[in-house]
Known about the structure:
Residues 1-21 are annotated as: Disordered. By secondary structure, the chain is an all-alpha fold.
Amino acid sequence: MAVAxxxxxxxxxxxxxxxxxxxxxxxRALLTIAARDQPPPRFIAGAxxxxxxxxxxRELLAQAEASxxxxxRSWVQRRPS
Length: 81
């Protein structure tokens, strides 16, 4: 069953026109990406966003490596390269 959600009205301050960054620089980056024959599957705008995603990727990789190291995990096989 679908649950109706209230419309986002921006009152939480997330969209207030005061975000950091340079909109013109973002527009240029998006146009550059759009013009590529093979654009990247994801575009992360902003150094803070890149750092946050990089940190999450490191965390997930550490979790995967820790899982691989658990005893009794002989059923886990590496995929061929």
